[in-house]
Amino acid sequence: MMKPAALSVAVSQNSEARLELENLKVGFKRQVILSTITLTVKPGELLALAGPNGGGKTTLLKTIGGLVKPLAGRILLDGKDIQGMGKKEKGGCISFLFQGATPDWPFTVQEVVSQGRSPYRSIFAAETALDRNATDRALMTAGLSGFEDRRVTELSGGEFQRVLIARAMAQEARLLLLDEPANNLDPKYQYMVMNLVRSMTKSGLTALVSLHDLSLASLYADRIALVHQGKIVALGKPARVLQERILAEVFGIPLVISPHSQDPRIQAVTFPLPE
After folding, report:
1. Nearest in space to 39 (alpha carbons), one of 68, 82, 81, 75
2. Domains of the chain by range and CATH?
3. What gap in Å lies between CA 194 and CA 173, rounded to an integer?
4. Per-residue DSSP letters for 241-259?
5. What pLDDT score does 9 carry?
6. Predicted pLDDT at 211
7. Which label site among 17, 110, 151, 224 has the fewest CB atoms less than 10 Å from its CB?
8. Residue 20 CB neighbours (<10 A)
């Protein structure tokens, strides 16, 4: 089978970011959701967050993105605590794609992607040539050339997901947070979306991606952090984390690990045979 051409994503010289979580504790009222989370994500790394529902993956992403205030600990981006960043500065550093985002307003694709430039201009400021270039580059890289005038309410789920990622590209943030970007997409769009994210990290951007699909995590992630009951219970390269014993303990089901037919270093994770 012929492989698609590799994508090349242009990023700014200041695009690389090192993320450090130090003894992070997060909770609501009296309930602790995450405890003692310590983690470093290197520039250009794609780290997948995997684990059962309710384990704390989305809460961790929201906390890193500044939407949830931690009870204790620090979140550092290139050594600077994000709690001390203003809204504009944070918007220029971090891009967050929520799980299950839907197009509620009939904006055009061009308008949505250009929203990624909002951290760099005031509310009523006109779009600059720099803004237009960043938007056009993001549209082209995401394979959306020719979609500019389409209404996002008319797009498929996979097409809209690419629009959101293009908006993140136009934003030129250094840290990308994605909550289940491939969820509810057919295999073609899962492949396209994850290839797009992978190409961005190869150009220097740092990404944390929550994934339910463990095979996708093995295929695309540099490392996997397995989050269970508010803690990181396993962290490392996919082959080290995706082991039957570890997954059985975390998910409570004897998942089957087998080598990918095209590369034995990559694991495919499947269900056991039905009883």
Report:
1. 75
2. 19-270 (3.40.50.300)
3. 18
4. H--HHHHHHHHSS--EEEE
5. 41
6. 95
7. 151
8. 16
Crossing angle (nearest 10°) for helices 157-171 and 187-202: 10
Q: Determine the 3-state secondary structure of 26 from DSSP.
A: strand
Name the one residue in this structure whose structure tokens are 């994605």.
178
**Within the chain, which residues score under 50 in pLDDT?**
1-14
In the three-class reduction of DSSP (H, G, I as helix; E, B as strand; rest coil), residue 145 is classed as: coil
pLDDT of the residue at 16: 65
Q: Where are the beta strands (DSSP E) in the chain?
A: 19-28, 31-41, 46-50, 72-77, 80-81, 94-97, 175-179, 206-210, 223-228, 231-236, 256-260, 263-270
Contact between residue 219 and residue 260 where contact means Cβ atoms under 8 Å apart: yes
Q: Specify whether the CB–CB gap between 215 and 267 falls below 8 A.
A: yes
pLDDT at 230: 94
